[in-house]
Automatic annotation (TrEMBL):
The keyword Disulfide bond applies. Belongs to the MEGF family. It comes from Molossus molossus. Residues 24-102 form the EMI domain. GO terms for cellular component: plasma membrane. This is Platelet endothelial aggregation receptor 1. It is found in: Cell membrane. The keyword Transmembrane applies. PANTHER family: DELTA-RELATED, PLATELET ENDOTHELIAL AGGREGATION RECEPTOR 1. InterPro entries: EGF (IPR000742), EGF_PEAR1L-like (IPR057138), EMI_domain (IPR011489), LE_dom (IPR002049), MEGF_diff_regulators (IPR052485). It comes from the Eukaryota.
Amino acid sequence: MSSPLCSLLLALGLVLAGTLNPNDPNTCSFWESFTITTKESHSRPFSRPPSETCEKPWESPHTCSQPTVVYRTVYRQVVKTDHRKRLQCCPGFYESGGACFPRCAQECVHGRCVAPNQCQCVETWRGDDCSSACAPGVWGPQCDKPCSCGNSSSCDPKSGACSCPPGLQPPHCLQPCSPGRYGPACQYSCQCHGAPCDPQTGACFCPPERTGPRCVMGRAHQWGHRHRTTQAYMGL
């Protein structure tokens, strides 16, 4: 049987069984504790009386047979705690028919939920819940208020709030991110150890004396490391 067909049958079986597919990127795992009752065997000592009776133990006690200790296997019930891996939908997703789907707090009126609390609107509809028919650049109940967003940024068709692209700061997307900030609405801090970063991507602009993705390594240190590596390779 071909591999694609096996995968298809496996996925179909998981859906019919109502269990989650561990290969689904929206499926998360967790450890669950549970108790089990088992029968456990162990040895217990017993005293076995002598087979012959001692008629006059007071006359010759050392000649009388003594009881012997024997061990027998007995059973007892034991409650043990164990752990097993279980699957559940990741936060922001819900289970339906053995699969995990994104959950949107509000209904996507003219669209569909494609990520947690994120609607994908059909053409000509806009807004967080795809309920506004305003064209780009205007907002309001009558779609008669122009967006006051610079750099060709869009605005929310209900509130008029600007959606600033990465590198521009709210509220009107007119100014670039302040030094040390980057990303959508300048919400992230640069991770460059004091060096500036690209306001859109966060890529570090290292000074001449430093290098690396976060400007941590000094160039002299990097040259020394390469020099030592070359010497070791050449056997010097």
